[in-house]
Amino acid sequence: MILSLAATAVSMSGGGGGVNSSSLDPFDSSTWGFGEDSNSSSSSNSTSSAYSSSPSSSASSSPDPSLMVLRTLIPDDLLMLVPAAASASAAASAVPPSSSPPPPLLLREVSPWDVALCVTGTLISCENALVLAVLFYTPTLRAPMFILIGSLALADLLAGLGLILHFICSYLVVVDTSSSSSSSPSGGELLTLLLPAGLLIGAFSASVLNVLAITVDRYLSLYNALTYHTERTLTLTYAMAVLAWVAGATLGLLPPLGWNCLGAGEGGGGGVAACSACRPVTRGNAAALGAGFLLVFALMTQLYLQICRIAFRHAQQIAVQHQFLAISTTKGVSTLSAILCAFGACWLPFAVFAMVADASYPAAYAYAAALPAACCSALNPLIYAFRNPDIQKSLWVACCGCVPANLSLRPRPRTSSDV
């Protein structure tokens, strides 16, 4: 660029005069000081006359126009123009591209009910994780009864994690709902609503079915006391556990696979009435789950009545140990009554509410019915695991390295009080 400007200046000086221009073009002859100017006409005329009078002296004393251009351009103009161009390009690059501003983050007010459910889920997870750890690290706890207790603890652990996940998806995961509508929810809404719902339905269903399996196992241990500790009983135990998990997983997959009411807004054909009180579960599915729980509760009640009848019959047949068996049977019946009453008190309100309520009911009613049902998973380790003498011995050995005097190291057969 400098050489081209120098060549231009040489040609202009060789042509014998500059070009007059009124504009402030940087390539104008007046800018570089060798064109005609109205204020310096006399000096230019004198310089031209001096050049014409003595050509030899002119050639020796007059400066080279190209050197004048270089000396003028580099210190004054070029060094001033380059930073200006750089600053202009930097300013142009600093301008952000035209884009729409991000949508504002709407912070949802935290509900005390959700906090209570999250705390309950944390307690459930800790209790059942302890039960699973004891069963896993104690090789002697491999009887059919402990297999079902471990299956129940795993289901309750997933239920507790589901409650924590529900709280996280409700308050800590921000979903952009600007591009979604009531009839077509976005992918983020589907993830934050259907994933916790499916996990909770599957885990709690497996928990209830495992409680039913434990009740069946207790009935068989008293009804077939002589043939209970056989390979056939172990196979039946595994079959019951697998069926409980298959049924729970099937029920848990229904909302993510399309059996939900998220699209029941404008075109879903039902609106609010299509949703149950526990969105996004449909009202029909919630009623089916409630009816299924009532059926499970009826089967458990019948089995526990049979267990009590067998226990009383054993007490009548053995007259020598009548006093001991009377006390043991009374303890077993009271324990059975407490277990059945606790199970019914936790789940019956939620089952009845799920059968009759829809999304138009206040949310406080749904929370008041769901919280006791969640607390049942916190009571299950206390009822079925920590009351067992073998698990108590394992806990004492793991925590203190010793066993209390009232707990024997030898495994003992199950009696009517071990329910």
Question: Roughly how many Å is the radius of gyration?
Answer: 44 Å
- Helix content percent band: 55-70%
Please identify the structural class as seen in this structure: mainly alpha
Following the backbone from N to C, one meets helices and strands in this order, namely HHHHHHHHHHHHH
* Total of helices: 13
Low-confidence stretches: 14-61, 69-75, 77-98, 265-270
Shape: globular
**Count of beta strands:** 0
Largest sheet: none
Distance between the termini: 99 Å
Q: Average pLDDT value? A: 74
Q: What is the percentage of strand-forming residues?
A: under 5%
Give an overview of the whole structure.
This protein is mostly helical and 419 residues long. The protein has helices spanning 2-14, 29-32, 41-53, 55-61, 65-94, 112-136, 144-171, 187-223, 231-253, 283-317, 322-356, 363-385, 389-399. The radius of gyration is 44 Å and the shape is globular. Mean pLDDT is 74; it is low at 14-61, 69-75, 77-98 and 265-270.
Q: How do the strands and helices of this protein lay out in sequence?
A:
Layout: H1 2-14, H2 29-32, H3 41-53, H4 55-61, H5 65-94, H6 112-136, H7 144-171, H8 187-223, H9 231-253, H10 283-317, H11 322-356, H12 363-385, H13 389-399
Quick description:
This protein has 419 residues and is mainly α. It contains 13 helices and no strands.
Features:
single chain; 419 residues; mainly alpha; globular
